[in-house]
Each structure stands twice: as C-alpha cells, then as structure tokens.
Automatic annotation (TrEMBL):
<protein>
    <submittedName>
        <fullName>Fe2+-dependent dioxygenase</fullName>
    </submittedName>
</protein>
<keyword id="KW-0479">Metal-binding</keyword>
<keyword id="KW-0560">Oxidoreductase</keyword>
<dbReference type="Pfam" id="PF18331">
    <property type="entry name" value="PKHD_C"/>
</dbReference>
<dbReference type="Pfam" id="PF13640">
    <property type="entry name" value="2OG-FeII_Oxy_3"/>
</dbReference>
<keyword id="KW-0408">Iron</keyword>
<feature type="binding site">
    <location>
        <position position="169"/>
    </location>
    <ligand>
        <name>2-oxoglutarate</name>
    </ligand>
</feature>
<dbReference type="GO" id="GO:0005506">
    <property type="term" value="F:iron ion binding"/>
</dbReference>
<dbReference type="GO" id="GO:0031418">
    <property type="term" value="F:L-ascorbic acid binding"/>
</dbReference>
<dbReference type="InterPro" id="IPR023550">
    <property type="entry name" value="PKHD_hydroxylase"/>
</dbReference>
<feature type="binding site">
    <location>
        <position position="159"/>
    </location>
    <ligand>
        <name>Fe cation</name>
    </ligand>
</feature>
<keyword id="KW-0847">Vitamin C</keyword>
<dbReference type="InterPro" id="IPR044862">
    <property type="entry name" value="Pro_4_hyd_alph_FE2OG_OXY"/>
</dbReference>
<dbReference type="InterPro" id="IPR006620">
    <property type="entry name" value="Pro_4_hyd_alph"/>
</dbReference>
<dbReference type="InterPro" id="IPR041097">
    <property type="entry name" value="PKHD_C"/>
</dbReference>
<feature type="binding site">
    <location>
        <position position="96"/>
    </location>
    <ligand>
        <name>Fe cation</name>
    </ligand>
</feature>
<feature type="binding site">
    <location>
        <position position="98"/>
    </location>
    <ligand>
        <name>Fe cation</name>
    </ligand>
</feature>
Length: 227
C-alpha cells in the first residue's frame, strides 16, 4: 500500500524547516547507504547530531505522532529517527531497495523496515526533476507532492529519485517497523479502520453494526499485530 498524506506538516512549517536545515553543514549522502545503494546514490545528508537536525527530527516526530491517518495506515511499532537529504542539479538516487534491517543509532535496537517515507520540504514548482519513482506490480509511478506532504510506501519496493536538473529538493526520509508485518493485512486493517471512522461519524459509535465492525478491527489486530 502506498499513500500520500498531503498535510503531515502545514506547508509554511515545512518551508520554514527547510530554511533552517539548508543553513546547516551537510555531508555526502552515502553515510547511511548499504553497499548496493552507495553506487546509485548521489545526494547530501544532514549529520544527525547537529542542532538543526535534532530540532527538525523532533518536529517531524511530533507531527507523525499526532497524525491519525499516518497512525492508522502505518500502525507504527518503531520509527527509525527521521533523516534529511537534499539533491541539487546532477544529483539523484538510482533504483534500489532499502535494507531490510537497520540499527537504531540511539538505542542500538534492530528495526525491520516495513515502510519507507519521504516528507517533502520543497514545493514541486521550485525544482525540476527529483520525482520519487516507486515500482509496484503494475509498473513505476512518479510522485512529486508539495512541501508538507508525506509519501508512505512499502520498503520492499524498488524506488529511485530522478536526477534534479534545476533548483533543489530538500526532504525528510525515514523507515519504520509496523506492528503488522504483512503489508496485505495492514492494508485491509487500514480500509476497515477508514470505513469504521466514516460509519461512526454518520451512525454513531453505539450503532450495532459500527460496534461489530469495531470489534472485528480489534480482533484482527489481536490476531495480526505484535505490540
Ligand atoms: O529522497 C528520497 O525521497 C528517498 C531516499 C531514499 O530512497 C533512501 O534514502 O533510501
Ligand atoms: Fe530508499
């Protein structure tokens, strides 16, 4: 399942974050690459321990924790601390798959990457190229949403960032382990959750069918989720 959350951050906040981030010192993006990805990757990343990165990471983490659509779709168990990247003219990230297991630098804990996300901090009109292209069973599709939007996609997919030819693309990116490992199960839970939300709004939480579907949702979670 791939979803776009158009307003993870208010656009103005995303643009302000971008301004603060670009003023900080950046390094070669290959610091977090696996051996395969390093060959394909040509971009820059913000070191994790600078003030700007720490502040921005906290803002993104807060936004994720408060976004009902993200929580329902991802069912996050552990979110890898968000990182930041930028691509100027001539920079790109060729087709790759993200490493299955990552070490959380803070806790030393291993995280299985179920979902990958990019949170765009630049409006689409401000750079050329730079589309995030994600392959699924039906082929590749390019995404280039405006600042503040998040694209959430399966870490199992091949994906790439097209070369930027003008302007600059600045983003936050992250991986997470979901409480529900199986993507098909997670997608069904999300559909059910969205229907329950809508039916609750029109029929009320104590409607008998709403109650039964709510019960079904939680009982499927009991069956499929690892808390
Ligand atoms: O820049 C992006 O949108 C994606 C970055 C990416 O795929 C990665 O760092 O593995
Ligand atoms: Fe990636």
């Amino acid at each position: 399942m791939l979803i776009v959350i158009p307003d993870l951050l208010p656009r103005a906040e995303a643009l302000a974050l971008r301004e603060r981030l670009i003023a900080a010192p950046w390094v070669d993006g290959n610091v977090t690459s696996g051996a395969g990805a390093a060959l394909a990757k040509k971009n820059r990343q913000l070191p994790e321990d600078g003030d700007a990165a720490i502040e921005a990471r906290a803002a993104i983490t807060r936004a994720l924790a408060g976004n009902a659509q993200f929580l329902a779709a991802a069912l996050p168990r552990t979110v890898f601390p968000p990182l930041f990247n930028r691509y100027g003219p001539g920079e790109r990230f060729g087709a790759h798959v993200d490493n299955a297991i990552r070490l959380d630098p803070g806790s030393g804990q291993r995280i299985r990457t179920d979902l990958s996300a990019t949170i765009f901090l630049t409006d689409a009109v401000d750079y050329e190229g730079g589309d995030l292209v994600i392959e699924d069973e039906f082929g590749g599709r390019a995404y280039k949403p405006d600042a503040g939007s998040m694209l959430l996609y399966p870490s199992s997919s091949l994906h790439r960032v097209a070369e930027v030819t003008k302007g600059e693309r600045v983003s936050c990116f992250l991986w997470l382990e979901s409480m529900v490992q199986d993507g098909a199960a997670r997608a069904m839970l999300y559909d059910l959750d969205q229907s329950v939300q809508r039916l609750t709004a029109s029929l009320g939480a104590d409607d008998a069918e709403v109650l039964r579907l709510t019960q079904l949702y939680h009982n499927l979670m009991r069956r499929w989720a690892t808390a």
